[in-house]
Design a protein that fits this description.
The protein is an alpha+beta fold and about 230 residues long. About 15% of the residues lie in helices and about 35% in strands. Strands 1, 2, 3, 4, 5, 6, 7, 8, 9, 10 and 11 form an eleven-stranded mixed beta sheet that branches.
């Protein structure tokens, strides 16, 4: 595998023990391999762990879930097959609570808004669509609320009840609030760095081995819009 000069910074680690390593993904990074063949966050993590623990052989790193390439935030990797099996089951059983932040056009309502749709994935386009065909679509539910607004944008907080392909991007766009920078789902202008303003902000779950309660928060990328909405 050919690696570029990118390195993994230890400051991005939010939690690590013998079973899990949880990190803050940067926008633009691949959480796992795809058809582009580009280096992935898991590749760099393996190199980091190999060097840190002076391992002579290959480093095991299991992938429990993924974040879209232009998205940032919390992502969980497993350091043992036991933890991977248990985490996969927890994701299937919706025992992991994930909270996202997104920047959209200005939201008027101050109420919690619940979106329920059936989503159908188009493999060729790598895109999901809202469908009325309930036999072909998968039921998808999220809730969101406005946290703060600027003149043109709002920061919203999203909680998922299901985990579907591009669910947040698809449902918000269908509701009339595409995410800033997300050309694929209807936002008019791209972000200069190719990112979208969608961030996996918080994760809460019971550790699959130790049974301790885990609750982690990660900060969004350092850019003008995120900073204006968060810091002022």
């Amino acid at each position: 595998m050919k690696m570029n000069n990118t390195k993994f910074e230890s400051e991005r680690i939010l939690f690590e023990d013998n079973h899990l390593i949880i990190v803050n993904k940067n926008p633009g990074e691949l959480s796992q391999g795809d058809k582009t063949g580009d280096d992935t966050l898991s590749d760099f993590l393996k190199l980091y762990l190999k060097k840190k623990y002076k391992k002579s052989g290959n480093v095991y790193l299991g992938i429990t879930h993924r974040l879209d390439r232009p998205t940032s935030g919390i992502i969980i990797y497993c350091k043992t097959s036991k933890s991977l099996t248990r985490m996969n089951n927890m994701f299937k059983e919706n025992k992991i609570k994930k909270t996202y932040w997104a920047v959209t056009k200005k939201v008027k309502s101050n109420k919690v808004i619940r979106l329920e749709n059936f989503l159908q994935k188009n493999e060729k386009l790598n895109k999901s669509f809202v469908t009325t065909n309930i036999r072909k679509g998968k039921k998808s539910i999220l809730n969101f609320k406005k946290i703060k607004s600027l003149d043109n944008y709002s920061l919203i907080e999203i909680t998922l009840e299901t985990g579907r392909h591009h669910q947040i991007r698809t449902q918000l766009s269908n509701f009339g609030y595409p995410i800033k920078g997300d050309l694929k789902y209807g936002f008019k202008r791209a972000n200069k760095d190719g990112s979208i303003h969608l961030h996996s902000r918080k994760i809460e779950f019971t550790h699959p081995v130790t049974k301790n309660k885990i609750s982690l928060i990660s900060n969004p990328p350092n850019d003008n819009i995120w900073n204006l909405l968060i810091n002022n």
